From TrEMBL:
Name by which UniProt lists this protein: Amino acid transporter
GO BP terms in the entry: transmembrane transport
Main subcellular location: membrane
Classification via Gene3D superfamilies: Amino acid/polyamine transporter I (1.20.1740.10)
Organism of origin: Actinoplanes digitatis
Length: 510
């Protein structure tokens, strides 16, 4: 018999736009967040140049494998909990409401910083492209134009944003595949080499830093789950889309890194990357294609960053919406646009915050690539990695408490493997965080950022405890979604098979 220990709050009337997105649209949001062309042009070239290892292709494929294992349990949980709060909702159901709110307080700054940091990259890239055309425009002006477009699209129909991403991503993926074919068709010495894909390269001291940087390149794929309430048949759509997003991003990055090494030769890829840096891909294809196709690549690099900006804006806005709807944030954040169904205050808040940060950096006259892009996205990426690590454990606990919902691979084996692997990656990241920020060994930023994340998580825990004492009905709504139903979060004894209660936005049983 189902338990009902606390009176349930009233059914929440506000909701995101339903049944808007199919599998392709959700995939586009996930792949756009991972921004493969941006990773290929920026991150892969930088790893070759800075780390000096030829193991980059196999590292990206291994990371895709790790995240695919994580995705197994992650999307299995999405079939039972449909909530735009994603990590927050899953951690709430697996580890309890208090821990879930702590995770939410980590998610908000992490995703906000990821999105704001990308404005720095967009502004710098757009400014350089316009300069090459003879037009002088500062990075801040370019970033403001992108900001205005994202702010408007964030308030419109989510399927409109999905269509914009579809056009941008199809063009982006097409140019990546074309460039890869060009590089492989012109191998160094006339021989296609698979040396950089050799598993033996994984057993070197450079693997740790490369794993961290590669994982950072995938951040954003998990945004698919944030769209679960707006997806058509979310039990199937989100699962398929998330798997496809990871696999597609992994293959594009891994094969592109291999194609670069094929073109230069494995023994020359590091030196060539150090010479050309972020122009590496363009320098390799330029001798073999018309100039216009290189120019198209530069433009699509800029639109790739814009696509990522749009995807992260959607994620931040929906996190805020979920927290407002469930009483963690003020209820005004739980309102949606009356016509478009977009999260109104969440979208506006992120736009205002981004504008304020960009103005502050512009006034300070700092380097947009180092301090806006590199610093903010690295700090935000650490927060997302913390959430992934916590979610992998939450998934494991959730299915241990609710046996029989999924097979043993999805409910136990894959989540356990993912938790162990992500624990290792997180440990390496925290230990070497100063190197990722490119600060001196005695810089306080080496330890300050991880400590700040612990601090905001503790603030979330205290906030949740205050809710439990002062607002028990709001506390009962944490992780519960839009459509009501009894929520059985882990404050009591574990449920046994046959006593499952409905949870999430669609009232699924678990």
């Amino acid at each position: 018999m189902a338990r009902k220990e606390i009176a349930e709050p009233d059914i929440i009337s506000t909701a995101l736009a339903r049944n808007r997105l199919g599998v392709p649209s959700v995939v586009f949001f996930g792949v756009a967040g991972a921004a493969p062309l941006t990773v290929i042009i920026g991150s892969i070239s930088a790893i070759y140049a800075l780390i000096g290892s030829t193991a980059v292709p196999v590292i990206y494929l291994v990371v895709a494998g790790i995240l695919s294992v994580f995705t197994v349990g992650f999307v299995a949980m999405s079939r039972h909990i449909v909530n735009s709060g994603a990590f927050y909702a899953y951690i709430s159901h697996g580890l309890g409401r208090v821990t879930g709110v702590g995770a939410a307080f980590v998610a908000l700054p992490a995703y906000a910083l990821m999105q704001i940091g990308l404005f720095g990259l967009f502004g710098a890239a757009a400014s350089e492209i316009l300069a090459a055309l003879g037009v002088t425009v500062g990075w801040f002006t370019c970033a403001l134009i992108a900001w205005a477009l994202v702010a408007v699209l964030g308030l419109l129909w989510v399927d409109l944003s999905g269509k914009v991403l579809a056009v941008l991503l199809i063009a982006e993926i097409s140019v990546v595949v074309f460039y890869d074919l060009v590089m492989v068709a012109n191998p160094a010495g006339g021989v296609i080499s698979f040396e950089t894909l050799a598993p033996a390269q994984l057993f070197t001291p450079d693997v740790g830093p490369m794993l961290v940087l590669a994982v950072a390149g995938f951040v954003g794929f998990e945004a698919t789950v944030v769209l679960s309430e707006e997806a058509k048949d979310p039990k199937k759509t989100v699962a398929r889309a998330t798997h496809l997003a990871v696999i597609l991003a992994g293959l594009l990055c891994g094969l592109s890194a291999w194609a670069m090494a094929v073109n230069t030769g494995a023994n020359q890829i590091v030196a060539t990357a150090q010479e050309h840096r972020t122009d590496l891909v363009f320098a390799l294809v330029a001798p073999h294609v018309p100039r216009v196709l290189v120019d198209v690549g530069y433009i699509l690099f800029m639109t790739s960053v814009f696509a990522a900006l749009l995807a992260f804006h959607a994620a931040v806005a929906r996190y805020q919406f979920a927290l407002g709807r469930e009483g963690v944030l003020p209820s005004v954040w739980g309102h949606t646009h009356p016509r478009t169904g977009a999260p109104l205050m969440g979208s506006i808040t992120q736009s205002v915050l981004a504008l304020g940060v960009l103005i502050a950096f512009a006034v300070a006259h700092v380097d947009p690539l180092l301090y806006v892009f590199a610093w903010l996205t690295t700090i935000g990426g650490l927060g997302v990695l913390l959430l992934m690590w916590s979610a992998s454990f939450a998934v494991l606990v959730f299915f241990m408490r609710n046996r029989g919902l999924e097979n043993i691979w999805r409910s136990m084996i894959a989540p356990m493997i993912a938790f162990l692997l992500l624990s290792a990656v997180l440990g390496i990241t925290v230990i070497g965080f100063g190197e990722l920020l490119q600060v001196d060994g005695d810089s306080p930023f080496q330890w300050l950022v991880p400590v700040l994340y612990i601090g905001v998580a503790l603030i979330g825990v205290i906030w949740a405890l205050g809710m439990r004492a002062a607002r028990p009905e709001a506390y009962a709504a944490i992780g519960r979604g839009a459509d009501g139903g009894v929520v059985a979060l882990p404050e009591g004894p574990p449920l046994t098979k046959g006593s499952h209660e409905p949870v999430g936005a669609r009232g699924y049983h678990y």
